[in-house]
Specification:
Helix content of chain C: over 70%
Largest sheet of chain A: 6 strands, mixed
CATH superfamily of chain C: MetI-like
Largest sheet of chain C: none
Oligomer: heterotrimer
Radius of gyration of chain A: 19 Å
Structural class of chain C: mainly alpha
Largest interface: B-C, 40 and 40 residues
CATH class of chain C: Mainly Alpha
Helix content of chain A: 25-40%
Distance between the termini of chain A: 44 Å
Order of helices and strands of chain C: HHHHHHHH
Shape of chain C: flat
CATH architecture of chain C: Orthogonal Bundle
Order of helices and strands of chain A: EEEHEEEEHEHHHEHEHEEHH
Number of domains of chain C: 1
Chains: A alpha/beta, B mainly alpha, C mainly alpha
Number of helices of chain A: 9
Chain lengths: 270, 219, 222
């Protein structure tokens, strides 16, 4: 991989919060992301949609460094994430660099992944205490504030096994926010929920968008929700961005054939 | 080490052969005991069940060495005097058989209920049903855990050296006592045991698993 | 040759056997503690990203598991002094037992760790936790209930293997019975009592292990 073509740092004038530059990801012979170029501006809320296998979840996972990169470079706020600067050149990042960069990014998962042996409160305190070095008191105050915001404060001493899916996901959101990330990733956070509790989670995300200027990237199947709160919709197909546009334009006037097919299929499924 | 093997290699091989004989005979004992006790545990007659359970709990709950000494030193007092070679493989076989009984029982109960019912519907006697339908299917299920158990059995045969059966460990001890070349003597013994386990027992069990799976049309 | 149980003799030798039982328990306990620690170290090392040490370690552990403990005991006891480390029978015995069973416990721990869902690891990474914290605060606590049954079985197993230490002269329970036998020429009572003591200790232990597992699961909210 020839990295000499990539800047060591993005210039002030052209510094989106997230930039995927010619990013490729493959598993053996299977190419999941194909020379992807994507910018996400500070404070933007981007929804990523598309059929399964289109690479949309991989985009999130690579940003969270859960997957390694095979080609190209990802930049966070102008600085390379997947690579680091050594002797004036870009080289693949080591774990120390990844840890530094990861501090700006938080993620919520489809299956919540709460720690089952800890209460909701402890789940939210774990990161701040162990990773950020906060005192227990400070972490507790922060956790309680966030649990209140997601409406789970009265269940703070419950273990995840006692909470419904929607409740667990709200705790998971509070847990991620406790790390004060600058970028929040939501990976199909409502796909594993019963329909009646999807609303309580989307409500929390809706408020997040309205009240904070976090940069957010969301993979979702909830078209109506995406249309309501996103600044931009990104439609993925076979590892490439097929079409992207502000929601109004995207849903009322899709340009590409595949986009139209997909939207028709989704509508039929409703 | 090479020169050591040249001098003592033959004696070690003799010991290994005795170990193999103990292994083979103990395996026969273990399989028979496991089958009888495993079926016994599932029997509808409570005396059989109790006997089987007693056998299993006693032989699993006490140490193999204790059992070995008991059979060799104490049993004569009851009139049953066994020569050391027989006492050896009998103890090991009975000990491993108790563990094997649980494997047999587990495998039989894992055969789907429908198989029992089909045999019943075909008016098979319980014995024929067990023999022709249930056991063959249970056999495939029990092979993997039996593989591990047979390695334990091989390791267990080493203890018969303590009642002076001239097996591999006995020979190693002798050589050690005579030459004080402990690393070579015991090291060689360990190596031979390892080779027996890795190159004989494990592949044999895997081969058996394949044969059984094929016969059941599952391969 | 006649069956002739002498109750008085049995009661006479009981105190001596019970004292030896304490030795047996100590040997089993120390050996098991060693096995628990070593086993965890091996289990974590088996997950190392470097292939060569990992494969080597796996082969060595397989070797230890596949060969008789009693031969390993002899090896450590006799070879130790020859390479300059003088070992008392006790220490040699406990090292041998600890090493032998650490190979088994490494497998048990490994299976327990692999039973923890991958999502937990991903959540740790999303929170930017160090590998060390991920293991000790999140993964290992969840691996523990899976590992307890195996750990319990091997505890009972270690305890039943302590008689092997008698071959290098450790004065545990079996050795005491042997001594009594050779002193008095009566084997029936000593060996039978030894069997009874073993049963009396191993059966409740197995029951306690099952109980402990249930409680641990409840306490960890799993």
């Amino acid at each position: 991989m020839d990295l000499s073509a990539y800047p060591l740092e993005l210039p002030e004038s052209d510094r989106p919060m997230v930039r995927f530059m010619n990013v490729t990801k493959s598993y053996g012979a299977l190419v999941v992301l194909d020379n992807l170029n994507l910018d996400i501006q500070r404070g933007e809320m981007v929804s990523v949609i598309g059929p399964s296998g289109s690479g949309k979840t991989t985009v999130l996972r690579m940003l969270m460094t859960l997957e390694t990169i095979n080609g190209g470079v990802i930049y966070i706020d102008g600085k390379p994430l997947t690579h680091m600067v050594r002797n004036g050149r870009l080289v693949p990042a080591d774990e120390a660099h990844l840890r530094r960069m990861r501090a700006s990014i938080g993620m919520c998962f489809q299956h919540f992944n709460l720690f089952p042996h800890m209460t909701a409160l402890q789940n939210c305190m774990e990161g701040p205490v162990q990773v950020l070095g906060l005192t227990k008191a400070e972490a507790r105050a922060r956790a309680e504030e966030l649990l209140t915001m997601v409406g789970m404060i009265d269940k703070k001493d419950q273990h995840p096994s006692r909470l419904s899916g929607g409740q667990q996901q709200r705790v998971a959101i509070a847990r991620a926010l406790a790390m004060r990330p600058r970028i929040m990733l939501f990976d199909e956070v409502t796909s594993a929920l019963d329909p009646e509790v999807i609303g309580e989670v989307t409500e929390v995300i809706r408020r997040l968008v309205a009240e904070h200027d976090l940069t957010m990237l969301m993979v979702t199947h909830q078209m109506g929700f995406a249309r309501d709160i996103s600044d931009r919709i990104c439609f993925f197909y076979k590892g490439k961005i097929e079409e992207q546009a502000p929601p109004e334009q995207f849903f009322t006037n899709p340009q590409r054939e595949r986009t139209q097919q997909f939207l028709r299929a989704v509508k039929d499924a409703d | 080490m090479w020169e050591f093997l040249q001098t003592y290699g033959l004696r070690l091989v003799d010991g290994a052969l005795v170990t193999c004989a103990q292994f083979a005979l103990a395996t026969l004992v273990a399989c028979s005991a496991a089958l009888v006790a495993g079926l016994g545990r599932l029997s509808a007659l409570w005396p059989l069940r109790t006997l089987a359970t007693l056998y299993i709990e006693i032989f699993r709950g006490t140490s193999l060495l204790v059992q070995l000494y008991w059979i060799f030193f104490v049993l004569p007092l009851f009139g049953v005097s066994l020569p050391k070679f027989e006492a050896g493989f009998l103890s090991v076989g009975l000990n491993v058989g108790a563990y094997g009984a649980e494997i047999v029982r587990g495998a039989i109960t894992a055969v789907p209920r429908g198989q029992w019912e089909a045999g019943y519907a075909l008016s098979m006697s319980p014995a024929r049903r067990m023999r022709r339908i249930i056991l063959p299917q249970a056999l495939v299920l029990m092979l993997p855990p039996w593989g591990n158990l047979l390695i334990e059995l091989l390791k267990g045969t080493a203890l018969v050296a303590l009642i002076a059966v001239p097996d591999l460990m006995f020979v190693a001890k002798q050589i050690n006592g005579a030459t004080f070349r402990s690393a070579e003597a015991f090291g060689a013994a360990l190596l031979i045991y390892y080779l027996l386990a890795r190159l004989l027992v494990t592949p044999a069990m895997r081969g058996l698993e394949r044969v059984m799976a094929r016969r059941l049309g599952r391969a | 040759m006649r069956f002739d149980w002498n109750w008085q003799f049995a009661f006479e030798i009981l105190p001596r056997l019970l004292r030896a039982t304490v030795n047996t328990l100590i040997a089993a306990g120390v050996g098991y503690a060693l096995a628990m620690v070593l086993g965890l170290i091996f289990a974590l090392a088996l997950r190392s990203p470097w292939r060569l040490p990992r494969t080597l370690l796996r082969e060595v552990l397989e070797f230890i598991r596949s060969t008789p403990l009693v031969v390993q005991i002899f090896f450590i006891f006799y070879v130790g002094p020859q390479v300059g480390i003088t070992l008392s029978p006790w220490v040699a015995g406990m090292i041998a037992i600890g090493l032998h069973y650490s190979a088994y416990l490494a497998e048990v721990y490994r299976a327990g760790i692999e039973a923890v869902p991958r999502g937990q690891w991903e959540a740790c990474r999303a929170l930017n936790m160090t590998t060390r914290d991920s293991y000790f605060r999140i993964v290992l606590p969840q691996a523990l209930p899976h590992a307890i049954p195996g750990m319990g079985n091997y505890l009972v197993g270690i305890f039943k293997d302590t008689p092997m230490l008698s071959v290098i002269g450790v004065t545990e329970l079996m050795q005491a019975a042997n001594s009594i036998g050779s002193e008095t020429y009566r084997f029936l009572e000593p060996y039978t009592l030894v069997g009874v003591i073993f049963l009396a200790l191993s059966l409740p232990t197995a029951g306690l292990v099952r109980l402990g597992e249930r409680r641990l699961r409840r306490k960890l909210g799993l």
